Amino acid sequence: MEDILNLFYENREFIFLILVSIFLGIEIISNVPAVLHTPLMSGANAIHGVVIIGSIIIMLQADPTNYYALVLGFLAVILGTLNVVGGFVVTDRMLEMFKKKAR
Fold first, then answer.
1. What is the DSSP letter of 33?
2. Which residue, 23, 36, 45, 68, has most beta carbons within 10 Å?
């Protein structure tokens, strides 16, 4: 437990930066018009594809005894994959709205 507290204490600036980035991202995304949602989702899917590849590379180069790196890499792969799949599902549903209905 003490190791985790030391990790947070040593990286408090980075943790603060991540928290501010999260709140800023939520504020920016909540003000995006619906027309721009599909192109932005496609860009986010591409970015998260890069995150997945990067986290796999980091996990392959991590020391097998470094559990922090392995757990964080595994979480990055899982969350990035969920985000990519969810993005494609949402994009597909948005594009379905613009198709002409068959009579």
1. -
2. 45
Contact between 61 and 86 under an 8 Å Cβ cutoff? The reply is no
CA 68, CA 50: separation in Å to the nearest integer?
21
Per-residue pLDDT of the chain (103 residues; tens, 9 = 90+): 888 889 888 889 999 999 999 999 888 878 877 777 667 777 777 777 888 898 889 889 988 898 888 888 899 899 888 888 887 887 777 778 777 777 6
Concatenating the DSSP letter of every residue in 85-96 gives HHHHHHHHHHHH
Burial of 56 from C-beta contacts in 10 A (0-12 / 13-18 / 19+): middle
Alpha carbon distance 80, 83 (integer Å): 5
The whole model's pTM is what?
Answer: 0.56
The crossing angle, in degrees rounded to 10, of helices 67-97 and 37-61 is 160
Predicted confidence at residue 38, as pLDDT, reads 67
CB 76 within 8 A of CB 55: yes
